[in-house]
Amino acid sequence: MLFDFLTVAVLAVVGTRLVSFAVETARSRTLRDRTLAIVRELRPRHFLRAPLVLVVVVVAASALIQVPGLSWGWWTAIGGTGNVIVGGTDRAGLGALTRFTPVVFIALLIPLLPLFAEREELAFRAGAEHWSWPRRVRRAVDFGLVHLIMGIPIGVGLALSLGGGYFMWAYLRGYRAGGRRAALVESTCSHLAYNMEILVLVFVALLLGL
């Protein structure tokens, strides 16, 4: 019962925040325009590279969570599955909530993905053209580990550092081609395409499981 209560409480908080972000984005012309501007920069190359990176991350995560201690995540510890942003849970006592909450959360997430990707790129990649390689590697690891906030296992967070490395590569590639603005566009679009493909896979799996 305690874990059921904790799970519902967490889902309520996350759901409220997602709705708040979605409403804010829908109401703000500036945010809507920025979202469309990011989406317009997407190119086929961003979608073609993403599955390769995803495979590498999944393989690494599968190996790392076999290491004692690295399979722990606070969301899975209270009965969740995946990460809390998607809202997956295997708490049998929650009934239909376990089936429909992830679908609702993903529907709310989809229009927010461009802005989320851009904010993470600004936080973890902006200025990387002036960093040493050790600092770049450290920021890629930081990027992976910050996702532990979402309740994913520690091993998965470490594996996501490889995704951070890919986005760093995209940023530096963009910088060489056209400076800081091009760098942020390239890494943001690479990040967005990667996230979009993950959400599509998760969404399809959820629908098949309903």
Distance between the termini: 24 Å
Helical residue percent?
over 70%
> What's the gyration radius in Å?
18 Å
Total beta strands: 0
Average the pLDDT over all residues and give the rounded result. 88
The major pleated sheet works out as: none
* Helix vs. strand class: mainly alpha
Sketch the topology as an H/E string, one letter per element.
HHHHHHHH
Strand content: under 5%
Which regions are unreliable across 5 or more consecutive residues at pLDDT < 50?
none
Shape: globular
Your description of this structure?
This protein has about 210 residues and is mostly helical. It has one domain (about 1-210). It has helices at about 1-25, 30-40, 45-65, 75, 95-110, 115-125, 135-145, 155-210. Helix 1 (about 1-25) runs parallel beside helix 5 (about 95-110), helix 3 (about 45-65) packs across helix 8 and helix 7 packs across helix 8 (about 155-210). It is globular. About 35% of the residues are buried.
Quick gist of this model?
The protein has helices spanning 2-27, 29-40, 44-64, 74-77, 97-109, 113-124, 133-146, 154-209.
